[in-house]
Amino acid sequence: MPSRYNIPVRLVITEENWRKFLPLTWMRPLWDLRLGAMTLRERTERFWKTRAWLLPARDWLSLTPEIPEGEFILSRADFLPLEPAPDLGPGSALFSHEGEPIAVMTSAARLREGLFALAEGAREKFSIKAEVVGRFWNLVHMNRAALLFDMRDTEPVARGRVETGATLLGRVSVEDGARIYPGVVVDAEDGPVFIGKGSVLMPNAFIQGPAFIGENCLIKAGSRIYGGTTLGPVCKVGGEVSETIIQGYSNKQHEGFLGHAYLGEWVNIGAGTEVSDLKNTYGTIRVWLDGEMNDTGLMFLGPTIGDHAKTGINTTITTGAVIGVFANLVGSGVSPKFVPSFSWGYPEFSEYRLEEAIEVARRVMARRGVEMTPGYENTVKKVFELTRPERNA
Q1: Cα–Cα distance list, 51 to 9, 13, 43, 54 (Å)
Q2: Is 212 helix (H, G, I), strand (E, B) or coil?
Q3: Residue 302: its pLDDT value, please?
Q4: Of 107, 134, 161, which residue constitutes the final position of a domain?
Q5: Which of 112-116, 187-191, 224-228, 294-298 has the weakest average pLDDT?
Q6: 82/147 Cα distance (integer angstroms)
Q7: How confident is the model at residue 7 (pLDDT cuts 50, 70, 90)?
Q8: What is the DSSP letter of 384?
Q9: Containing H/E element for 359?
Q10: pLDDT (tens digit per residue) in 66-82
């Protein structure tokens, strides 16, 4: 991106509001969450047209990089820009059309003061049409619009193998190594559909756009995946899924409904699990965040499920439930609104032993060819301690 100030554009992405996205951000930086057809980091780098230094807010996830001297654009990642970036100069800030801070240009020495404080005191302020995510539930709420925006230039192309008897309607992109079996219907008339490399759509599956299917996913026979859905890599999906984001490496293979939900990585949804994403009163949905219930203002919202969580067969999950990392939802009746991290069972919870949780996670990851690194194991141990107050409340 050229600059009239003759300053090379150097970008730093911050995550100072990461706690507003728990439990999804216990095991990853905020910028790795998905929205639409890409991660928040990918979208932010595309917007500013440059690669970024990353400024984590937590030392247990990654080391703070050595950032050289000079001027930088300090940008949040949780926003959906709907028009190009302006040319920022030193001391200037960018806001959304609704007044939410997006970025500020500042010196390396002041980066740790934080985006929100620096933007408030900016000498010059610009605004663009952009939607700020702000809270975890807005990822799902904004996903359909993000998919339509991200894939607005998608053209129908079949680089993979589309068998005779499969039906592709509208702008469907099938990447190399993907395979679509007979009887599959991909309906992209209401929005594009992207099928990633190596993904397989088994017979009689139905995909409605807009939808993004990442690399090496398996869509089971007879599945129904409706518009507004994003699947990260290496997911196995069956049953009925609608308006949902799955981060990656998670399984929802069996019959049962999953709607307006966000699943982290290494989640397993047991057979017959059903979720509610609409109250009988058609009222707005309240969710657990920051130790209290928050009104989302949304009529539709399913569960938000942290990494390595699992549900037993025939589990029933209430509207807007928040299920922590490494939680095991096994029991009878409808789930609570909040399930603590590293908990086992409901309605009465016990603590999931840390050593067992790590061993099971190691086994699960190995089945997908992923080795648990010492750094990842240390993160699990740190999060176990940080979430202890949830279990003791």
Answers
A1: 10, 10, 11, 10
A2: strand
A3: 98
A4: 134
A5: 112-116
A6: 12
A7: low
A8: H
A9: helix 354-366
A10: 888 889 999 999 999 99
Give the span between the Cα atoms of 209 and 27, in whole angstroms.
Answer: 30
- Asked if residue 369 has pLDDT above 80, the reply is yes
* Among 218, 216, 242, CA closest to 230: 242
Distance CA 136, CA 164 (A): 41
Radius of gyration (Cα) for the chain, nearest Å?
21
DSSP assignment of 236-266, as one string? EE-SEEES-EEEES-EE-SSSEEES-EEEES
Structure-token pair, residue 306: 């942290």
Task: Give the residue from 342, 304, 346, 341 showing the smallest Cα distance to 329.
Answer: 346
Residues in Cβ contact with 20 at an 8 Å cutoff, skipping those fewer than 6 apart: 134, 135, 136, 289, 290
Bridge partners, residue 105, by sequence: 73
Phi, psi at 232, each rounded to 5°: -70, -170
The pLDDT of 354-374, averaged and rounded, is: 97
- Residue 5's pLDDT is 44
Q: Are 209 and 192 in contact (CB under 8 A)?
A: yes
CA distances from 38 to 46, 230, 279, 280, 348 (A): 10, 9, 30, 34, 38
Using alpha carbons, select from 74, 109, 76, 69 the residue that is nearest to residue 88: 74
145 part of a folded domain: no
pLDDT tens readout for residues 247-280: 999 999 999 999 999 999 999 999 999 999 999 9
CA distance 375 to 238: 33
60 located within any domain: yes
**Amino acid (one-letter) located at 265:** E
End-to-end CA distance of the chain: 50
**Residue 46 pLDDT level (bands cut at 50, 70, 90):** very high
User: Average pLDDT in the 102-121 region?
Assistant: 93
We report the CATH number of the domain holding residue 266 as: 2.160.10.10
Judged by DSSP in three states, 98 sits in coil
pTM higher than 0.85, yes or no?
yes
Check residue 151 and give its pLDDT: 96
User: Residues with Cβ < 8 Å from 279, sequence gap 6 or more?
Assistant: 285, 299, 319
Q: Is 47 exposed, middle or buried (0-12, 13-18, 19+ CB in 10 A)?
A: buried
Q: What range defines the domain where residue 271 resides?
A: 150-392
Q: What tokens appear for 341 in the block? A: 């991290």
Residue 282 within a domain:
yes
Which amino acid would we find at residue 244? T
Question: How many domains, the chain?
Answer: 2
